[in-house]
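Case 279 in the screening queue. Each case pairs one protein sequence with one candidate compound; here the compound is zinc ion. For every case the pipeline is the same: read the inputs, emit a complex structure as tokens, and attach any notable structural observations.

Predict complex for case 279.
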Amino acid sequence: MENKPVIWQEMTWPEIKKVSDEVGIAILPIGATEQHGFHCPAGVDAFNAYEIAKRVSAQTGAIVAPLMPYGSHPYFHYGFVGTLPIRATTQIEFVRDVIKGLVNSGFRKIIIMQAHGQWWTMHTAIQETALDVDCFMAVATWWELACEKIREVCTTPFKHADEVETSVSLALYPELCHMERSKEDYSLKGYVDKKFVRPAVHSELINAFPIESITSVPQESTAMETGAPGDPRLATAEKGEAIVSTAVKVVVDLIEYLKKNYKPGEWPKVKPVLAADMY
Ligand SMILES: [Zn+2]
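Case 279 output:
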């Protein structure tokens, strides 16, 4: 029998304290508000982060912190109707403040469930926060957690609002998807010859969009026809369910490992002991 997720905003503070005393692990979902083509809603990244976090919570008892629905964006996302970017510095400060709040509520093991292409801010946020706060932090994205499964079930590499991401949407909230409006879109073009474009460091491993390369090659993304590069018509709920359940299992396994090896108030010690406060 599947248990219910443990949702921070639905609980009183003594109930939250009980979870911190007995489990001590929090999941912080971070998404974005961004156009996802003609066929998927602007909340895709936020919904994906929250729904996957809830599935993990239901299986582990880890608490789901309130969702951050805004995200930082590469510059070429600016100008798309439906996209509401926040600056990278805002995102970093937000993550640091919320993690401090989670620690002050007794949670020393924190898993960030992040579902938007903003890893440069997310990783910086973790590095900056680790200077201030002694806790365990991990950043999880569903496309990295399920990279092998994505390659197994999908026929095109992951970009945005495409076969891969739309499949996840169809698995989690099909009522908000309008597949009859989806169409293939290969209109995204770079300014320089393709021979100069190299894949990002991890893109081959995770079968993902080489966003670093795209960032260094200015794109008129707002000139795209649909806002969804690739072919979302290939998406199915079955593919999405395979991806989501694989990603959930990896995080569940991590949380069970943490529960087995660390008491609720303990955490893997990774912070160095410094001779002087530097910050
Ligand atoms: Zn997305």
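Case 279 observations:
- The pocket of zinc ion is lined by residues 36, 44-45, 116, 160, 165 (CB under 6 Å).
- The two ends are 48 Å apart (CA to CA).
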